What does this fold into?
Amino acid sequence: MPTSPEGAKTRAQRFIVAGLLLAALIAGSTLFLFSSSRVPASSPAASLAAVPKTAPGTVPATYVGAETCKSCHESEFKAWSGSHHQLAMQEASATSVLGDFANAKFRKDGVESTFFRRGDQFMVRTDGPDGKLTEYPVAYTFGVHPLQQYLVPFPGGRYQALPIAWDTRPKNEGGQRWFHLYPKQKTDYTNPLHWTGVYHNWALQCAECHSTNLHKGYDPASQTYKTTFSEINVACEACHGPASAHLDWARQARPPYGAADDKGLPSLKSRWNEAWKFPSDTAKFAVRDQPAAPAGMNSCAACHARRSTLSEDRTPGAPLEDSHRLAMLTAPNYHADGQQREEVYVWGSFLQSRMHQSGVTCMDCHEPHSHKLRAEGNALCTRCHAAAEFDAPKHHRHAAGGKGAQCVTCHMPTQNYMVIHARQDHSLRIPRPDLSLTLGSPNACTQCHADKKPQWAASAMDQWYGKSWRERPHFGNTLHAGETEGLPALPGLLELAASPTAPAIVRATAAALAQPHANPGTLAAARALLQDADPSVRIAALGMIARADPASRVLGGAPLLSDPIRGVRIEAARLLADMADAQIPPDRRAARAAALQEYEHALALEADWPSGQVNLGNLRLQQGRGDEALAAYERAIALDKAFPDAYVNLADALRQLGRDPEAEKVLRRGLAALPRDADLHHSLGLLLTRKGDRAAALSEFIAAAKLAPDNARHAYVHAIAVDSAGKREQALALLRSANKRHPNDVDILGALVSISRETGDRQAALRYAKQLAQMLPGNANLSRLIAELEAR
It folds into this structure.
């Protein structure tokens, strides 16, 4: 086997932290997810060692190493040498370490860290897991530009990434200095983001995308790692796949080589140079002569996407969803109009773009081995966009040669991540300052002109282009409504999800946002989406039927147990995990068993995340294996005692098992660790209500509502508890206030109708009932109530 680090990104200088984690919500009444793990530091772990290559020619194909590829592909090897991929991770040495280890000091939050040398060993003296200054050896470098991080060995096969990084930029650009990745946060040893904790664990967070053929090798029983990789960096086979079969072909093949020959590797060529042509001398845009094979671009997706991992056995060139779960275009990762917000690593942004819809691939712009652009500046864009039309002041309206005249300034604005790493938004969008006014999303105009407001930018565009640009429909309005307006947004979400012209990731996001509002009336729409060509849409559509009756779930989900894409099969298995075999069609039972096995394998890969254990607990609870569910939730808490969702899920599982006294102890244990967590207070309030202690429950509901004032559910339950305590006027006041903040919440409106009616305020009850009827058209009971109130 191989040996290496993890990471959901490729460029060497990245390290994900807890605030950036991608965690998928598993269905259930109060079931949440996330991730973490901890082991005390003391003696360093043994050094990672790349495992010897397996002899080529065996079946299945094995990894042979970049040096073997070099013998026939010297130019590609030369281009790769010195690239971010080739330098993604290195053993710490005088040539690889770029930071100042000449007794350099860095101070933050009262901790003075010192970087020094001890012979050939690079060392750091900094605060350990107990807060005391401790000396640690640096084992590996991580990244090269614009920053470099350092990995420290810990017991149990762990490697922890220091949060103090070296700025590798030139001094005149602000570089050649130590800096902290959380400059505005206090992350001492009591904080879950402390560098010795789970969220800085290399194997957990970064390793997958910084090495070749990585296998995490986590053992939940001992909480240890035996991580392996074939090569320490991102080498040839990270993209092309194991090459032993290709070597077998190469030994026997003789020119001329046929295009259709099975060369033992998937073809990742994009035909970038000859595929694009201007159809005429007056054409504004080049067109591709034929669609590019998706394998080439798919090879980039796994490490250039915000996603979670389903399988380490990725087939080169396969769709991302076969090995990973892609994050949708929702907060906090994206702004409402799809612009990058958190670091999302390009793929989800590019999938939205008109470039992608027109057939542009990653390799049309980027040389895949050196990662250099195919051309510099606007020359790259004018390969497909007529220079006379677009690289001209009449189009960009800025001084020629200046920053404003650069295509990327307006169409690919940057945002800094990891403090200093500017990343361009690959959604390649036309600036829409008008959406900044309605959605609160950024726009390229005022990102450059920081002293101006979006109104100013919109007015300038009106003068340049007329006002028709404002009328162009944008999916951002629908997605924003889906995140903020609740049930009234459902028709628009369903229409967008079914749109033949919208990008697939946009349609999948719309379907995902529709999930909480799915009802029997949306089953037909969901069934249509289950047949969609895009796997992300099929996955989201399965979520739309998760609350349907068993027969509808089986009817929609069972066929997808045999879907060609692993991620779809896994979601179908999760959807049907609570079904007895007798409820599954006989010809689908074997597929269900196989898909469940794939799901469990995916959960095993996430066993070192608290979210992975919570998801496993959710599955076991679905399957009626209560004791195993409880054990999984407890493991999640053991991994991160500051992970509130684990306590909430554990308590809810105990409730379902009829063990409320134990559930109360769990919630109080959680509150001892997290006294200001609103969900824990809310859950305890519900438990105390069941217990009959309404006064104590009310105090918990009050705390939850104060700690999370924007949570509609907490506000509603707080008001109902106040009403149950006999304080009806106070309850009405709370509900009215909540209704102003959440005008489309069905429960709040329903409570206002009911209590207003009971207090004799017929006009108020009628007003709220009519508002509710707009959200629930065709509801017979509501129609009868409105008629009754109007008759009186």
Remarks:
- The two ends are 78 Å apart (CA to CA).
- The chain has 35 helices and 20 strands.
